[in-house]
Amino acid sequence: MDDxxxxxxxxxxxxxxxxxxxxxxxxxxxxxxxxxxxxTEFVFIGCGTSYYLSLCAAAVYSGITGEKAxxxxxxxxxxxxxxxxxxNHKFLGIPISRSGSTTETIWAAKYLKNELHIxxxxxxxxxxxxxxxxxxxxxxxxxxxxxxxxxxxxxxSMLLMIQLLAAAKSRNQKYFANLxxxxxxxxxxxxxxxxxxxxxxxxxxxxxxxxxxQGPYYGLACESMLKMKEMSLSISEAxxxxxxxxxxxxxxxxxxxxxxxxxDSGREHETRMLKDVKALGAKTVVxxxxxxxxxxxxxxxxxELNSGLSDYAxxxxxxxxxxxxxxxxxxxxxxxxxxxxxxxxxxxxx
Length: 350
Ligand code: F1P
Fold this sequence. Notes:
This protein is an alpha/beta fold. The chain has helices spanning 4-10, 12-26, 28-35, 49-65, 74-79, 81-84, 103-116, 130-134, 153-169, 173-180, 182-201, 216-232, 267-279, 293-298, 319-332, and strands at residues 40-46, 69-73, 90-97, 119-124, 137-140, 208-213, 235-240, 256-261, 283-288, 301-304. Helix 13 (267-279) links the parallel strand 8 and strand 9 (283-288). 1-O-phosphono-beta-D-fructopyranose binds at residues 47-50, 97-99, 102, 105, 149-151, 230, 343, 345-347.
């Protein structure tokens, strides 16, 4: 029988379908509210996975709407507010939390409200949470509630909510139509490529996992790094693809695997990086829309999504395979992904 983590990873496309049905129908007032905001910077806020989600969200939101956005950790909101919220600028704070109870995120939401008088829109999977209660507006992905400690379907489902928000804000019907294709395409990716994730995870020669991505794919690389660490206790790192040459590349040896979350915009430069890391003896994995012949000859493992979707639309299709990589690595090491070491579902500070 599947453990909770595997089930949540494999069945996440059902949660995507629910989000796609629920949001436009039941939350149009939130979309209208965001459409009416002008010259307002959206500040995405979170901890752990929800911070990496914020990194991706800010890039997607700006890329699709042409409006300003940034991502910050919840702790920086109350520790360095002046560095994030200069006076005489308009902001919308978007605290993100699966549980809606992470202490720093609650503190950040309260600080925005009480000290800075900045409006907030909460994103969560728990409609009864403190975060949702203290926020005047919220978007909740109830279908993405998880039993697991590690966040998997909640990450992709909440990212999909932000993609829908960006589509609504920019009135981009084509983008919206593309997002609706994601559940079916996600199911195909999981069916076709879980085997490759397992093969990579079970390769005993590999003990150092590097995840690379550019733009919105950097947040995905960080989240992939975290899944590997949380579930399998393996050493893992994440970088912007082109940043990897600037020092971290020194770490490569025959036990290193470099995993490219390759984008269309980054492809040319990422292919050059692929060539460089291969020459240094790393094993290589490429997850991309479609491989050019050069990628085929350089990648030890390939996941081709063949989605027909743009860089900004197909993002969440990368994640199930990255999550399964961490999951199978954990199983291969005899660890229980449902009970990760030193972690709890929520971090509560007294
Ligand atoms: C954030 C988070 C998780 C992490 C851990 C504790 O939770 O940091 O990303 O895996 O188990 O909580 P949340 O604020 O999104 O509920």
